[in-house]
């Protein structure tokens, strides 16, 4: 007879923001969680973001659902993960007549999304940020911020470890095990530290591999309509602004400049690419980012590039141009595809990782008949430094 008091076992594949947040959520709901990441924590897309804590302003006109999710989670992360966040605010600035006209839609969308937005004069914007383009025609203040990507992932992971979750870095899942009735029963993974293959028996498996969600789901012969969409980001060796500077326009290439420590980062382009394990950094896209950054902050012309890199967004495929795809997320229960016990979470933003974890954990619990609610909304995260310490279980 099975032990009805045994904790349900969950295997999470993917150690980015969402995987680490999900490890904490499920562990706090009474699961035994083990997470498998083929590299180090945040080694994939999560480690290659520009670190923007979205206010939702970027999406409040064209993607209202994503805008609402961003501002709600912006407020939560500022409470539970303040150690990782520089809540410095942001500006949306208009540089052309079309930008000025877009400002009316922006102001209306911000109100609909419950984003705290205030229109200020160009002179006031220049007083706040003297290095922005002095030819700006309109400006809005928004509650943007910047976060440290590695610290955010590690803070979730450190807290999950304290509650008993186990993290396996450099362990690549290469097989999803199934029972005769089709239900998933565990994962088989290669431990690269020792070059040995091991199995972990699991009641549920959650695919949280982001841009790799499609290939991971294929291990169980199911489909996930994820569309990896890379973009280039460029960092400069001077911190030329103190706030996030956004172009007041429909989302476009090179429309966000983010201050990080002693640098500023400009992002990003958007294009399709099939091989997410190797995405070239194209010079013409670097040049475009440099041009767009200088439009927002002209002194970028005199700064030196510190680095340029690519990152693939895990967008939900729905046809059309990548810029038109929603930035919200989707949870999949693959029972309907013949793989009960397997779930996928993909899409979304770094800012919404906690919410994505919450909704995925809700779906997992419902499938098992478990009535446990999310506790991460008010759980202040442990120091990211604790991840590399031997944390004692809080249970």
Structural overview:
- 26% of the residues lie in helices and 28% in strands.
- It has 395 residues and is an alpha+beta fold.
- It folds into two domains: 9-45 and 150-225 and 327-388, FAD/NAD(P)-binding domain (3-Layer(bba) Sandwich); 89-145 and 227-316, D-Amino Acid Oxidase, subunit A, domain 2 (D-Amino Acid Oxidase, Chain A, domain 2, 2-Layer Sandwich).
- The strands form four sheets. The protein has an eight-stranded mixed β-sheet with strand order 6-7-5-15-16-17-14-18. A six-stranded mixed β-sheet has the order 9-2-1-13-20-19.
- Strand 16 (256-260) and strand 17 (263-267) form a beta hairpin.
- Helix 1 runs parallel beside helix 5 (149-162) and helix 1 crosses helix 8 (353-368).
- The protein is elongated, with a radius of gyration of 21 Å.
Give start-end ranges of low-pLDDT stretches.
319-326, 391-395
Helix count from the secondary structure assignment: 8
- Give the strand order, joined by hyphens, for the main sheet: 6-7-5-15-16-17-14-18
Helix-and-strand structural type? alpha+beta
- The CATH class designation of the largest domain is Alpha Beta
